[in-house]
Write a structure and sequence with these properties.
With 692 residues, the protein is α+β, with helices and mostly antiparallel strands. It is built from 13 helices and 35 strands. Helix 1 runs parallel beside helix 6. The longest helix is centred in the middle third of the chain and has 22 residues, at 235-256.
């Protein structure tokens, strides 16, 4: 499948790097259509894995009503044409019909099960801000809130996606069973995003198609001056390329959703791409890409349920209603063409997805990426069966495509429990060091040579990343290192990133380039914006004497594993000699000894402050502030920041939990700032301390 087109490469690449950062814990190592639920034994030399394959099956009668009384013996499942012995069976029933004597149907919700289900319902609410209109935006918010309040069960998992012209595909909320969080987010969706609409998309399409250029596209505009000559624009081509961006993002989304087990239901609120754009008289590459996207959705077991937000359509083939209708029909979903009466749509989606069966059988998978076709039959006559088309075997990391490696990287970085593996965890620190947009975030980590064991081999990629609050990658630095000799060293990583002001999830990922095995560290950090007045202290980075430290540098040129030298720019930025000191990430001070720290302070750009630093230990029990001797060993000046390398004397206090208080005062302006960090104070005799 081709994801990136030449005409829109920069947009699609942005999506692949940033937009696929979602659904923590939802990606499999193969990046395939596997329906894995349970690993029965660990891979043996990456050759064979025994896996319990779970298949989600919907069965309806000739009238489209769910058939809810089948047993395991009623099903026949074929894997590549061979019948399989079913070892697992589960039935989910959302609603049942009332006795025949009653005129109305009574809906009875399935109670929350006491034990975990094999597979639950999964909904993705997809808000389309590009192909929509202001009234449609309001209505889709109302419809989504109604669906959440009336149709979603406690066991359902729900995620929120959106698409706009400026931001492309966004993951507003990862797949979660915390429905309150979903409702809180959906309640905020409204006209604040209307500046990114393709407003009245089908009307605009007709108008621009007839006009042929931007000067005529807005006939309501009046001017007393003659309009300047403008080059003619091919509006059909512009609309085609815009639609191609949209379709490419949906195709990549479908590909990424393959590895989420079971059926996925994408509830799409949209006006749709105008049908003539996708299906012109002479089909073009957009036509084939759209058809391919629908096949990708089918392969990934995604049913698209569409609510048309363009009003009430009366069969006008020029609107996006026809496109949405075809999309829903081809993927096995539901289409509804009246946004003013959306309640029946919510009920139809709920009924369609509420009753299903889960079939499970063991398979022996080889690491070859081979696709297996699945076919499910029901012995009872008159039943219509909807089941996945198939799944793919996992494959070796060296056979991954670039896209698969990116998805695997995001899974490792963001998932609490990545499906691909259980990575080694290690500590890191993420500290803002300036309010300038360049070189304003420091990542520091100690590479856990002893913990790595056989996880990482000789050739390893070292990646430092900053994710924003929507889990999009804002900054990434990568080098390749030789880890063959690090086990006899204390190895460290320092990375300087450049990010806009905001909150970030910071990660360092070490990944073996042969096996894909990984080690991961992660913390959160807040980077403030520029200050106009005053000063602002940032959290300190503690360091310790270590003349044998080995540094890997994700911020610049890579150094060989056997070299101990570091680049000069690192010393310039951090104000300490990295050949003499190394990061101390433990929150521990040692009484009666010395401690060293890098302290950064933001100042107004162009100012010339004279800063004085002081430090205290705050005793949480007695509430006393105990002075600490503080000596500035080196100071570095930037246009909006000052960086200090200091030595502090730790008082001989009782071992306990304390707060380190740092104060900065501008002796010129009198501006002050303080920073508090919690530490424990222990005896200096303990190993690994900062004291000499």
């Amino acid at each position: 499948m081709r994801i990136i087109r030449g005409e829109i490469k920069k947009f699609s690449l942005l999506f692949l790097i940033a937009g696929l950062c979602f659904f923590p814990g939802s990606f499999s190592q193969s990046g395939s259509a596997s329906q894995d639920a349970v690993r029965l034994q660990k891979p043996l030399q990456h050759e064979v894995t025994v896996t319990l394959k779970l298949i989600q099956v919907y069965v309806t009668d000739k009238n489209g009503k769910p058939v809810i009384d089948l047993t395991k013996d009623d099903f026949i499942l074929y894997d590549d044409g061979k019948p399989q012995k079913l070892t697992e069976f589960e039935k989910h029933v959302l609603s049942i019909s009332a006795p025949a004597a009653r005129a109305e149907e009574r809906v009875v919700q399935t109670p929350v099960p006491r034990s975990p289900r094999l597979l639950n319902r999964k909904f993705f609410l997809f808000f389309d801000f590009a192909y929509n209109n202001p009234l449609g935006v309001r209505k889709m918010g109302e419809a989504a809130r109604h669906f959440l309040e009336t149709q979603v069960l406690p066991t359902d998992e729900v995620g929120v996606l959106s698409f706009s012209l400026l931001k492309l595909l966004q993951i507003n909320l990862n797949l979660t069973s915390d429905h309150r969080k979903v409702r809180d987010l959906v309640s905020k969706i409204g006209l604040r995003d209307s500046n990114q609409l393709l407003e009245d998309s089908e009307d605009a399409y007709r108008r621009k198609l007839a006009a042929g250029n931007l000067a005529d596209a807005r006939p309501e505009a009046k001017t007393s001056l003659p309009m300047p000559e403008m080059p003619e624009l091919d509006m059909k081509e512009i609309w085609r390329l815009s639609a191609m961006t949209y379709v490419d993002c949906l195709s990549a989304l479908a590909w990424a959703l393959r590895s989420i087990p079971g059926q996925k239901n994408l509830v799409l609120f949209s006006e749709g791409i105008p049908y003539p754009v996708v299906y012109p008289p002479a089909p073009n590459d957009l036509t084939w890409e759209y058809e391919n996207m629908l096949k990708e959705m089918q392969t990934s077991n995604v049913a698209i349920c569409s609510l048309y937000t363009g009003g009430i359509t009366l069969g006008d083939s020029q609107t996006g209603a026809w496109t949405l209708s075809k999309t829903s029909d081809d993927t096995g979903g539901q289409y509804w063409g009246n946004m003013y009466n959306y309640e029946p749509f919510a009920e139809k989606v709920n009924t369609m997805t509420g009753s299903f069966y889960v079939l499970g059988y063991p398979v022996s998978e080889k690491w070859d990426g081979k696709f297996h076709a699945i076919k499910v039959e029901v012995k009872r006559p008159g039943c219509d069966v909807r089941a996945p088309n198939g799944y793919s075997n996992p494959k070796l990391f060296t056979d991954y495509t670039d896209l698969e490696k990116k998805i695997n990287l995001v899974d490792l970085a963001l998932a609490e429990k990545p499906l691909s593996q259980t990575p080694v965890r290690f500590d890191m620190a993420a500290l803002p060091r300036s309010t300038e947009p360049a070189n304003n975030l420091l990542l520091a980590a100690m590479i856990p040579a002893g913990k790595l064991g056989e996880t990482l081999g000789k050739k390893v990629e070292v990646i430092s990343l900053a994710f924003n609050q929507t889990d999009a990658i804002v900054e990434m630095k990568r080098t390749e290192e030789n880890f063959a000799g690090i086990r006899q060293y204390s190895a460290y990583l320092l990375s300087i990133l450049s990010v806009p002001p905001g909150q970030y999830k910071c990660r360092i990922v070490l990944r073996d380039l042969e096996t894909g095995k990984a080690a991961v560290a992660g913390v959160s950090a807040t980077v403030p914006g520029p200050i106009a007045t005053g000063i602002k202290l940032f959290p300190p980075l503690l360091v310790k004497p270590d003349r044998g430290a080995l540094y890997f540098k994700a911020h610049g040129p890579s150094a060989d594993a056997g070299k101990k030298a570091v680049t000069a720019d690192l010393k310039t930025l951090l104000a300490y000699d990295t050949a003499q000191y190394a990061p101390h990430l433990e929150r521990t001070l040692y009484r009666g000894s010395e401690a060293w720290a890098v302290i950064c302070c933001a100042v107004p750009e162009g100012s010339s402050p004279k800063l004085k630093l002081t430090a205290f230990l705050f005793d949480k029990l007695t509430r006393d502030q105990i002075p600490m001797d503080l000596t500035v060993l080196e100071e570095k000046s930037e246009k909006a920041a000052r960086t200090f390398f200091v030595r502090m004397g730790v008082p001989d206090v009782e071992p306990d939990a304390y707060t380190l208080l740092l104060f900065a005062e501008d002796e010129v302006s009198g501006a002050k700032s303080e920073m508090a960090c919690d530490f424990s104070v222990e005896d200096a005799a303990k190993k690994g301390g900062l004291g000499r």
